[in-house]
Amino acid sequence: ASFKDSPFDESKWAQAVADQTGAEWHQTYPTKNELLDDLEDLVHCQDIPLITTRTYAQYRVMRLINENNIKVVLDGQGGDELFSGYHHHYFPYWMGLFKQGRYNTMINEMRSTRTLPSVMKYFLKSYVKNEVATIIPSGIKPGIHKSKFSEMNFLSNDFFHANIGRYKEENMAPSDSLNSVLSHEFYSGPLKYLLRCEDRCSMRFSVESRTPFSDDRDLISRLFSIPSIYKIQGGVTKKLLRNSMQAHIPEVIANREDKMGFMTPNNDWIREIKDEVRHYFEADTTGMLDKSLILKEYDNYFNPSSKEENFRIFKFMSFVVWLKVFELN
Fold it and tell me: What is the DSSP string of 238-268?
């Protein structure tokens, strides 16, 4: 999935792989108008409200695969959790070295990490959040959360208080074991949701999507038995996978340091489609949402200003579409 003139476009990386391997390269170019056209079908095939527009990019890729009469594809879901591909994995790796008394190695690894400032910022934010969470009575946490995140006011007071006992905020305390973090993310983290989304999108277009990193038990068992020191080296994540594939992928891919993920122009799309989605909110009769407040503050709520993807707003859009698609109003 490509996005012309967008900072989220990764076409050049895909082009490099296609050029070296001699593969036939196919592209699809999702737009906000096409998202609007496909939104109800997308929600229907997923069967649940969506968190982000990234699912639409995957939906379009599966449609493209079907249009080219390809029946089976391979996907790399699970690779980051097995091989340590996320930047927040650095800190438990360093803590593991510290616990083992390998202080010089830890210092050298930290110095080699080009994203050190952002990694430390992420750690401090997570650490403070978890420490504060331990001293706040559980009964008042939902209220604090609602005051902190304005979109929580989308929920009607009656619905919010009737379901306050179901509120659960997942916090994973900073760990001094990289493998324990990877195991948690593999078995209990977002990977399960990502695999579900992929399966639904692929089945919508009669494509068999296979994910060996998430499905090969022998491979999974072997990788979780390998010490963390082999998974991150010299400030480089996914070191094992990079080394094993060095002869098969371009050097620019093997040496790539930034981490983007399956990104879309999510915030731009939310701003651009909000007027066309408004009627779904107007049709809501469930009493779960504070419809009058949402419509009153509509333009302010659905106008994300940050460059960083806002995962909290689109889910409300997809929720009211879900209500309409499954005739739940």
Answer: SHHHHHHTTTTS-HHHHT------S---HHH
106 vs 99: CA distance, rounded Å: 10
Alpha-carbon distance of 274 to 206, in angstroms, equals 31
Q: Does residue 140 belong to any structural domain of this protein?
A: no
Q: Which of 58, 53, 68 is nearest to 23 (CA)?
A: 68
Residue 320 resides in a domain: yes
The pTM of the whole model exceeds 0.70: yes
Domain count along the chain: 1
Tens digit of each residue's pLDDT (9 = 90 or more) over 50-106: 999 999 999 999 999 999 999 999 999 999 999 999 988 998 999 899 999 999 999
Six-digit token pair at 8? 């989220």
Cross-strand pairs, 233: 236
- Do the domain assignments include residue 74? no
Lookup result for tokens 């830890």: 106
Do the Cβ atoms of 89 and 185 come closer than 8 Å? no
User: pLDDT tens digits for 132-141?
Assistant: 666 667 667 6
